[in-house]
Design brief:
This protein is an alpha+beta fold. Helix content is 17%, strand content 31%. It has 3 helices and 7 strands. β5 and β6 form a beta hairpin.
């Protein structure tokens, strides 16, 4: 069964910053754009930004390669994006983390081919656990999916091991090669 393709969209719109947004390239072993989520041009495309209050925001496009229900994005693609941006919010706030628990709530189906907005932020930290929330919404603020998560801060040796295995994985957002790191993160070890 085939579905009709979504109408063409100006994907350059993903890169346009709103007032108070600063472009932020999340990084992993594949490069600066988390290409493991977008390894095919018809799947997910997105751009992340840091907001004036330190949260993450951006825009995402769910292409035909993300299809679940006919004409709509699969819930797993929404969950993947929320996992990425909630964890990314923690990393961008100086907490190198891995997900321990995610709770995703689906409110509306996301039509394929539509540019959506996402937001994510760190809500609090308790010892080695960072709590974050995120949402995917339309331009009018209608929430289509939201999530919350508990993320565990990597121990210094775990982070060093990740860096030793794939140095490019930790470059960019937080890891600078400085084994001392800085701020509250370093004090937690």
């Amino acid at each position: 069964m085939t579905s009709s393709s979504p109408p063409p969209v100006d994907l350059a719109a993903l890169e346009r910053a709103e007032p108070g947004w600063e472009r932020l390239h999340l990084a992993n072993a594949s490069g600066p754009t988390w290409d493991w989520l977008a390894d095919h041009p018809d799947r997910l495309r997105f751009a992340t930004f840091r907001t004036a209050d330190g949260a993450l925001a951006g825009r995402a496009w769910f292409g035909p390669g993300c299809q679940g229900p006919p004409g709509h994005a699969h819930g797993g693609s929404l969950a993947s994006l929320l996992d990425l941006v909630m964890g990314g919010a923690a990393w961008a706030s100086g907490f190198p983390v891995v997900a321990a628990h995610l709770d995703i709530r689906y409110g509306r189906s996301v039509p394929l081919g539509r540019i959506m907005r996402f937001d994510a932020r760190v809500d609090r930290r308790e010892k080695r656990v960072v709590y974050a929330t995120g949402a995917i919404s339309d331009d009018g603020g209608q929430v289509y999916a939201s999530g919350s998560g508990r993320f565990v801060i990597l121990r210094r040796q775990q982070l060093a091991d990740f860096h030793a295995q794939q140095p490019e994985t930790c470059d960019g957002v937080v890891w600078t090669g400085d084994p001392g790191l800085s701020g509250e993160f370093a004090e937690g070890f």
